[in-house]
Design a protein that fits this description.
Blueprint: H1 3-18, H2 25-54, E1 59-60, E2 67-68, E3 87-88, E4 94-97, H3 107-124, E5 141-145, E6 153-165, E7 174-181, E8 199-200, E9 208-216, E10 219-226, E11 231-237, H4 255-262
Antiparallel strand pairs: 1-2, 3-4, 4-6, 5-6, 6-7, 7-11, 8-9, 9-10, 10-11
Transmembrane segments: 41-61
Keywords: Membrane, Transmembrane, Transmembrane helix
Region (Disordered): 14-33, 66-92
Length: 270
């Protein structure tokens, strides 16, 4: 060997001679196992902490142990378009949004004529045996004027409805028609006043200035002119021409009943 190799070998012997051998190899094995177990425990605790952190969104209800739902941001909602309001002109006319009431585009008209049907039921059919429900014959008739109203609106000069009338055991259908005319609008805005044989009828009904009656083929029509300027027309006919080819045998309504119904102050315009 070379002198350098001799020196390296001597140095290695010196180092190994200075090391103290383990007293028991089994002790070394036990220490290694304990060290590995501690390492695994540390790793396990770290994973557990991560899970606990991820589930920390659960909230306990005050005073109890049951989890309470976490508050969430409210879902966005769309704001409905506001319904145009009625406008009163300096001349005293009430202007409502212009629309087609027959197609349901004017809820204010529908609400009003649905109320007309209720008045007719109370006055002419309190037992609910004859008049169709609103959902069955949903009829709206109207007339209006744009004079003095803002663009897109009209003042109602007349509004009314037709309600079917049925008799138990019969296939035919009669009709009761009501039309309310604004002050100063009669007979130009009239629907029922097309009859020619009107006769003045003395009445003593509250709020009524005068009244007229027309007995025509198939029924009876009345017109009441109220002291507040409104005119209310009611026509009771044994055939609902729009809906039926067969008339009912009778509506069983008297002129006085029709006049009292037309005098009801609840018949107004929107």
């Amino acid at each position: 060997m070379t002198p350098i190799e001799d020196q390296l070998g001597a140095e290695l012997h010196r180092l190994t001679d200075s090391l103290t051998p383990s007293s028991d190899p089994a002790d070394d094995l036990r220490r290694g196992r304990r060290r590995r177990a501690r390492t695994r425990l540390a790793v396990g605790c770290g994973a557990l902490a991560a899970v606990a952190s991820a589930s920390a969104v659960v909230v306990l209800a005050p005073g109890g142990s049951e989890p309470a739902p976490v508050a969430k941001d409210p879902a966005p909602t769309s704001t409905p378009a506001p319904t145009p309001a009625a406008v009163t002109t300096p001349e005293g006319r009430t202007c409502v949004p212009m629309a087609d009431p027959v197609r349901g585009e004017a809820p204010v008209y529908n609400r009003t004529v649905k109320g007309y049907r209720q008045i007719l039921a109370e006055r002419l059919d309190p037992q609910g045996a004859h008049l169709d429900r609103w959902e069955v014959t949903r009829s709206v008739q109207s007339s209006g004027s744009q004079l003095g109203c803002p663009e897109g609106s009209v003042s109602m000069t007349g509004l009314g409805t037709k309600v079917g009338w049925r008799v138990a055991g019969e296939s035919g259908q009669g009709v009761v028609q009501v039309f309310v005319v604004a002050p100063g609008g009669w007979p130009d805005s009239s629907v029922v006043a097309e009859y020619d044989d009107w006769q003045d009828r003395p009445v003593a009904l509250p709020g009524v200035a005068s009244a007229e009656v027309s007995v025509h083929e198939g029924g009876t029509a009345v017109v009441v002119h109220r002291a507040d300027g409104f005119t209310v027309e009611i026509d009771a006919n044994d055939l609902f021409g729009n809906n039926s080819l067969t008339p009912v045998s009778s509506l069983d309504l008297t002129v006085d009943q029709l006049l009292a119904a037309a005098a009801d102050p609840r018949f107004t315009l929107p």
